[in-house]
Design goal:
mainly beta; 2 helices; 10% helix; 52% strand
Length: 255
């Protein structure tokens, strides 16, 4: 957390310094485009993200964006592990996460602004922009299912896909009784919704800001806030706030 806070202040320092320089400079006033549409995604320190954005180019130095995104957040203590046994349904056992209770996904709808800190160009060189904004979050908790091994009176094993509960707690938390994860198709009918919001601040490198074909990289800090602790793990402490460093790549079109 200390490193994230230091990064945030470093990011704000760069932004403030460059903004002051931008205010003293003259932009190319040519504005050949009014709108832009991009798709993209990337990774953050505890997961991944995909997004789509529609932007209104208000000025050569300012773009307003409306964004929809979908991401996954993992607990910092998650660790996949396997055991040196063969699966009873054939092949080697698959890695699973010990002590995991739920997967957590976030759908976001939000607004952001791009403030260009250096003038857009016509020759394919890059421009630097500050991006800031916020989202309404729709957190989705999906139970994590494991293939648990049960044996009848004759010792014949069978597999049951189950989520964690009080009745199967001992078996769920005994690695020798697990035949790997049940797969991503389980649990979608049992989603719990956790509302929240998020804020972000980032630096964006835009290659050819006055070109019709968009291509940029965004690096920044994002914080997701929820009203309840998000139950991801059985034993580890769970939190209502997730702060991540992220990097995104966007491609799109301007017209």
């Amino acid at each position: 957390m200390k490193d994230l806070v230091l990064f945030y202040f470093f990011l704000m320092l760069i932004t403030s310094s460059t903004t002051a320089q931008w205010n003293r400079s003259e932009f190319n006033e040519i504005q050949p485009f009014n709108n832009e549409l991009s798709i993209g995604g990337g990774v953050h320190t505890t997961g991944w993200d995909v997004n789509i954005s529609y932007g209104f180019i208000k000025h050569n130095s300012r773009t307003l964006q409306f964004t929809a995104s979908f991401s996954e957040i993992k607990h910092i203590k998650e660790k996949e592990q396997t055991y040196e046994t063969l699966s009873i349904i054939g092949g080697a056992t698959k890695a699973f996460i010990y002590g995991k209770r739920n997967n957590f996904y976030i759908g976001k709808l939000g607004y952001s602004e791009k403030i260009y800190l250096s003038g857009k160009d016509d020759g394919g060189m890059f421009s630097l922009a500050w991006v800031y904004g916020g989202n309404v979050n729709f957190g989705l908790l999906k139970p994590y299912y494991l293939n648990l091994i049960y044996r009848n009176s004759g010792g014949q094993p069978t597999i049951r896909a189950e989520k964690f509960n009080e009745d199967n707690a001992q078996k769920f938390l005994t690695p020798q009784e697990v035949d790997g994860p049940a797969g991503p198709s389980y649990g979608w009918g049992e989603l719990l919704i956790e509302p929240g919001f998020s804020l972000k601040s980032a630096l964006l490198i835009d290659w050819g800001g006055n070109n019709s074909f968009m291509k940029d990289i965004e690096v920044g800090l994002n914080a997701d806030f929820f009203f309840n602790d998000i139950s991801l793990m059985i034993f580890n402490q769970n939190y209502p706030i997730f702060v991540n460093l992220y990097i995104h790549r966007h491609l799109g079109n301007r017209w």
